[in-house]
Amino acid sequence: MSAAISEGVGKVRRPELSHKIDIEVSVNDAILLASDEGVLTALDDRTLRIWLRRQSGKYWPSVCYTLESAPSALYYHEASRRLFCGCDSGLLHEFSVAEDYNKITLVCTYLGHQTRIHAVYFSPINDLLLSVCREKKFNWYSTKSSDENHQYILGSYTLASWGMSITMDELSRQCFVGDSNGTIYFLKLDADNKYQSHTTLKGHTGSVQNLLWDSDAAWLFSGSFDTSVVVWDVGANQGLAVELNGHSDRLVGISYDKSCKILLTCSADGHIGVWPMNVKRNETPKWVESDSCQICHLPFFWNIHAMWVQKQIGLRQHHCRKCGHAVCDKCSQTRTALPLLGYETVQRVCNDCVRTLRNDETIPLASFYDARQGTIKMDYNQVKKIMMTIGTDRTIKMNFKREDIEFLGKNNVLLRGWLYSPLVPLNHSAIIMTHGFSAIKEMGLDNYAQIFCRDGNFYVLIYDHQTFGSSDGQPRHDINPYHQII
C-alpha cells in the first residue's frame, strides 16, 4: 500500500472557515493569541479589545479599553504579557495583560512621534521598543523601567519616506525597516544604542508593507505593494535574493511556519499563498537592456538609426523571464510558469530558452487559496495551524487548509480523505481512516515517515465521517483528538 499527498498546486481553492468575528467598526490591526483561543484588536473607534472564544463557540470581548486616539499598530509579547500599541496621534502605549485576558493595565506611554504609527516591534532580549511612522522617522526606546526618562527617544534615524514595516535580528541587534518607496534599510544598533547604517536593500518597486525575519535560516522576507515577495538570504553574505510571484494584488501579510518550512502570504484581494521553502529556487535574472532583439536582431522602436538602415518598423521590447534577455514579441511567444525562479503564474519565455526548458522546471510548487474577502492583514498561529485574516468588511476570519490525501487501499482501491494532526503528538500513533471504512487502521509511523513526517512530529489522519465525524465532514472534537493542519 502507498500514499501520496495531492497538493492541487496552482489551483485557487477556498480555505476552511473555522470561526468568524463580526465587528461594527473598522479594524486597524489584530493579533492572534497563541496560548488561548482569542484575538487582540485595534479598532477605529479608539478601543483596544480582547476577544475570547466562549463555550458557545462564539467570540465575545473580555476587555474594551478606550484610548485618546485610534490605535493603528499592535505588538504583543505573549511570554511576558506585554502589549505595545501605536496610535494615530504618535503616542506609544505599553500595557500589561492579565493572565486570564480579562484586564489590561497601562504601564507606560512613550513619546517622540507626531503622526500615525505604522509598525512597532519589541525586543525582549535587548529591552528595546522600535517604531516607524508617517513622519519618516525610525525611533527606538528603552523598555527598562529602571532607566531614567526611558519613555523618551533613545535614538532616531531619518528615512527617505514613510516607514511602513519593521523587524529585527535580536541576537545581532540588526534592524530592518521598510519604507513606502520600496527600500529596506539595514541598520545595526551597537551596545550604546547608537545606529550604524550598513546598507539598503532594493528589490521592490512599491511600498514594503511586511517584513519578517527568520533567525534560524537568517532569511528576511519582504512583501510589497508591487505584489511580489522577496526572500533575502542575509546569512549567506552573498547578496542572494529570490523573488516569489503569484499574487495579483498588494501583499498585506507574511508568516513563516518553521516546523513545516512553509511561507504563507496574503494579498489584499484575499488570495492566500502557501510556498514550500525547503525547495532550492534560483535568483530571478536581471533584465538586460538592448536597442534590438537579442534573438532576431531587429531594432526596437527607439533605435531610429537601425530602423532607417534596415528599413524596418521598430518593435516593442519584452523580456524573457528565464534568461532576462531583451526580445521582441515574435521571439517570445511561449507562456509558462517558472516555479524554480519564483514565477507561479504563466510568464513570457523566449524561443532560445524554450528549447532547453525541462519539464521539472514548470511543475508548480506553491498552492493558492481564495478567502473571498478583501483583506487588510493576515496573522498565523504556528502551534494551532490557524490563519486569521482581517477583512475590509470589518470581519475577522479564522481559517485553516484541508489537505487532500489519495490512498491506495486493499485491491488498489483509490480512497480519498483529509489530513489532520493530533493535539498531543507524543500520545498518539499515526492513524488512517478512509471514506467508506468503519474500522480504524493503524500504521507504523516509521514505515510512512518519509511520506507524512515533517521534522519528526507529524501525524496523519485520513478522516472518515461515517466513523468519527458529522455529515458535513467536519471533525467532532469531543471524540476525535485531532486538528486539521495547514
Strand content: over 45%
Question: Multimeric state of these chains?
Answer: single chain
Q: Assign the CATH superfamily of the largest domain.
A: YVTN repeat-like/Quinoprotein amine dehydrogenase
CATH class membership of the largest domain:
Mainly Beta
Find the count of extended strands (DSSP E, 2+ residues): 40
Termini gap: 25 Å
Query: Which sheet architecture does the biggest sheet show?
Result: 5 strands, mixed
Keywords: Metal-binding, Repeat, WD repeat, Zinc, Zinc-finger
Domain FYVE-type: 287-358
WD repeats: 201-242, 244-275
Pfam families: FYVE, WD40
Structure description:
InterPro entries: AB_hydrolase_fold, WD40/YVTN_repeat-like_dom_sf, WD40_repeat_CS, WD40_repeat_dom_sf, WD40_rpt, WDFY1/WDFY2, Znf_FYVE, Znf_FYVE-rel. This is FYVE-type domain-containing protein. WD repeats lie at residues 201-242, 244-275. Residues 287-358 form the FYVE-type domain. One of its GO terms (molecular function) is zinc ion binding. The protein is mainly beta. The chain folds into three domains: 8-284 and 364-400, 7 Propeller (Methylamine Dehydrogenase, Chain H), CATH 2.130.10; 304-360, Zinc/RING finger domain, C3HC4 (zinc finger) (Herpes Virus-1); 404-484, no CATH class. The chain is 4% helix and 45% strand. It has four helices and 40 strands. The strands form twelve sheets. Strands 2-31-26-25-24 form a five-stranded mixed β-sheet, with no helix packed on it. Strands 3-34-33-32 form a four-stranded antiparallel β-sheet, with no helix packed on it. Strands 4-5-6-7 form a four-stranded antiparallel β-sheet, with no helix packed on it. Strand 13 and strand 14 form a beta hairpin. The protein is globular, with a radius of gyration of 25 Å. Residues 1-11, 401-410 and 415-486 have low confidence and may be disordered.
